[in-house]
């Protein structure tokens, strides 16, 4: 005779939560906002404290605007405007 248990040896399973929250691209929502390598305050929002560029899944940008941000950050790094 088999014993039936709920959840197996480790216990009942917990419901999974989504790891990432779906966000809208702020540049698509507001077309007047322009990505420029000279705008250091805007570029700092898309970087970590160490200067790494944050990924799309964290910033919520679309692919086109994320690439534009990455290019602007890299250009600003060359000119020593940001870390």
Q: What is the CATH H-level superfamily of the domain at 26-78?
A: Ribosomal protein S18
CATH top-level class of the domain at 26-78: Few Secondary Structures
The global form is elongated
- Encode the helix/strand succession as letters: HHHH
DSSP strand tally: 0
Rg from alpha-carbon coordinates: 21 Å
Tell me about the biggest sheet?
Answer: none
- Which class do the helix and strand fractions yield? mainly alpha
The fraction of residues assigned to DSSP E strands is: under 5%
Q: Which stretches of 5+ consecutive residues score pLDDT under 50?
A: none
Let me know the average pLDDT.
87
Looking at the overall shape, the CATH architecture of the domain at 26-78 is Irregular
User: Share of helix among residues?
Assistant: 25-40%
Number of helices: 4
- CATH topology-level fold name of the domain at 26-78: 30s Ribosomal Protein S18
Tell me the span between the first and last alpha carbons: 67 Å
């Amino acid at each position: 005779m088999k014993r039936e248990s709920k959840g197996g040896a480790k216990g009942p399973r917990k419901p999974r939560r989504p790891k990432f929250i779906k966000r809208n691209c702020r540049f698509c929502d507001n077309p007047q906002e322009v990505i420029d390598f000279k705008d250091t305050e805007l570029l700092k929002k898309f970087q970590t404290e160490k200067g790494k560029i944050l990924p799309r899944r964290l910033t919520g940008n679309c692919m086109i605007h994320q690439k534009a941000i990455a290019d602007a950050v890299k250009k600003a790094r060359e000119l020593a405007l940001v870390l």
